[in-house]
Amino acid sequence: MDPVEIKVMKFGGSCLSDSESFSRVLDIISSEKGCIIVMSALKGVTARIISFIGQNMENIDLKGLSSFLYERHMEIAGSVLKGQEIRKFVEDLGFCLDKIESYGPRMAEEPGNMEKHSAFLQSFGEKISVMMVAAALRQKGLDARGYFADDLGIMTSGGYLSGTVSMEETAVNIRKTLTEAVLNCEIPVVTGYIGRNGKGETTLLGRDGSDYTASVVASCVGSASLTLWKDVDGIMSGDPKSSHSCTVLRNLTYDQAEKLSLDGAKVLHPLAVSQAKKDMVNIRVKSLFDPLSEGSLIHGTYPVEH
Prior knowledge:
Helix 4 (83-101) runs antiparallel to helix 6 (114-139) and helix 9 runs parallel beside helix 11 (270-279). Helix content is 46%, strand content 17%. Residues 302-306 have low confidence and may be disordered. The protein is of the alpha/beta class. It starts with 6 loop residues before the first strand and ends in a 7-residue tail after the last strand. The chain has an 8-stranded mixed β-sheet with strand order 3-6-2-1-9-13-14-12, with helices on both faces. The protein contains 11 helices and 14 strands. It has one domain (3-299): 3-Layer(aba) Sandwich (Carbamate kinase). It is globular and about 55 Å long.
């Protein structure tokens, strides 16, 4: 398989709400070949982590956060994983939760660096999600492996919570690893939303940054195809909450999509569109709950095959 044939698919948190939606995700991944998967945290997990962090790091209940993450993920893992894979997942989950519960002294060393600590703690939403998806795929007989973006080498600059990806350095770090994995018939499952800075510290790409991660990965591996799976049928012509006449926009140029995202269209991350535009990566936005629908296609001004 030539690297340009690699496809990238990203699943948002709204696609990961319960065991039923989780199974839908697994079915879609299983039906494709030559894919790299980018995962968000389970629905509601990032928001809950942020609520635990609050405004005062001195009072954060790390054990309470750990207990929440255990219970939330075991709700689904207990239904979809069995045997060796559930045992391995529980072991890996425990390793992550130990890191969270033992993080107090590090916060005490740098009490004024709240953004750094917040990025570190938030990253576990995606990390645990990726471990669970990879385990579930292996249970279905597929060769899947989870990759943490900060370890993989998605490099950022510009702060801990809303970093910008350093594309040249990131491409060097991730291209070979991910393309070789796909060529060897492995399904790489990569954390969205997170990266690392030049100091080796975990960083974030801003809320809903998993779209941005997926666009970066697609560019780095030379993919021409990126599918963003969400809980909506595509990009709407307006806010459906305020207008009943809104319709799904089936075809948009990069410029049109970028403008919509900058104007507040929550279904898109602005940097995901701008990065795809640079490397002419077509973006398809589709609904997990209506996978046969064409969704919305974002592309250049050249003719696009349907």
